[in-house]
Amino acid sequence: MSVDVGPTYPPVVRERRHLNLRLPLPDSSERCPRFPLPLPPSATSSTASAATASISAADLEKLQVLGHGNGGTVYKVRHKHTSAIYALKVVHGDSDPAFRRQILREVSILRRTDSPYVIKCHGVFDIPGGDIAICMEHMDMGTLETLLKNGVVFTEQLLAKICHQVLSGLEYLHAHKIIHRDLKPSNILVNQKMEVKISDFGVSKIMQRTLDPCNSYVGTCAYMSPERFDPDTYGSNYDGYAGDIWSLGLTLLELYMGHFPYLAPGQRPDWATLMCAICFGEPPALPESTSENFRSFIECCLQKDSGKRWRATQLLSHPFLSNVDAKSA
């Protein structure tokens, strides 16, 4: 199955290094919602959304496993009566309590969101035996990381289209005081139309007040901004919104370069290496053929001083995105 990735040059399979340096989720005193959870009314009315209003675990037929990890499994499922396809994330009853807290956090945020650039939740329910399941829309091309592993070349034209959608999602989330805190290629889902949606809100944060404290020690350390590694040097007032923008810039660079940009291809990462590279290293060198608009956009995202990073709304008006059709993005 092919994906239109732009007219410049054919996909080349690249060597891929896996960066999954997860940090532990700290104990939280936040209240967690109980199951089952009602879903908020959707702003869009359609036959599909109406059909999912009374969805239950018994209605779903498992077709295949989409992925494993962290005490859970994601399945591709089909509704027995409507034949609609969904993704079902099942958290096993005997999984790590910290991961179950992440799922509860994710559900809490998904229930608050209604954006075409954020993954949609169709139902949450208990499964006999103690498992918890979240029924979500299915994105048939997996994640941006999946495409990169499969050798897709991300041209500037394709990156601009992807970036406009992710930024639109971040603009929506930030306007609703939601900080993602773990934006990276594997947490951005994609379908055959190259529509992308932000997913995985397990370590996200809902800011209740302007000065609400936001623990920076969560997420995937490879995509952390300098102030998250070293708040003493880069500012103790952690700005989670600016942290999401840094992660976006790093994600775009990884897609463009084909490997994690702050390390050499094949280099084995660890905490100290990543901290030195991100906090004290020079910005990643881009090929000479890179356009000035893309260079400028990345620079606006990867300012080590978080106060100098552009906000999502500002970045949406950056010249790099000027040729993106917002209706088709």
From TrEMBL:
Instruction: Using the record's annotation, list all stretches that form the Protein kinase domain.
Output: 60-321
Read off the Pfam families from this record: Pkinase
Keyword match Acyltransferase: no
Q: Which SUPFAM superfamilies match?
A: Protein kinase-like (PK-like)
Provide the GO MF annotations for this entry: ATP binding; MAP kinase kinase activity; protein serine/threonine kinase activity
Q: Which biological process annotations from GO are given for this protein? A: pollen-pistil interaction; response to other organism; response to stress
Q: What is its EC number?
A: 2.7.12.2
Instruction: Tell me the domain of life.
Output: Eukaryota
Q: Which InterPro entries match?
A: Kinase-like_dom_sf, Prot_kinase_dom, Protein_kinase_ATP_BS, Ser/Thr_kinase_AS
Which residues does ATP bind? K89
Please give the catalytic activity noted in the UniProt record. Answer: L-seryl-[protein] + ATP = O-phospho-L-seryl-[protein] + ADP + H(+); L-tyrosyl-[protein] + ATP = O-phospho-L-tyrosyl-[protein] + ADP + H(+); L-threonyl-[protein] + ATP = O-phospho-L-threonyl-[protein] + ADP + H(+)
Which keywords does the record carry?
ATP-binding, Kinase, Nucleotide-binding, Phosphoprotein, Serine/threonine-protein kinase, Transferase
The text of the family note is:
Belongs to the protein kinase superfamily. STE Ser/Thr protein kinase family. MAP kinase kinase subfamily.
Protein name as catalogued = mitogen-activated protein kinase kinase
Higher taxonomy: Eukaryota, Viridiplantae, Streptophyta, Embryophyta, Tracheophyta
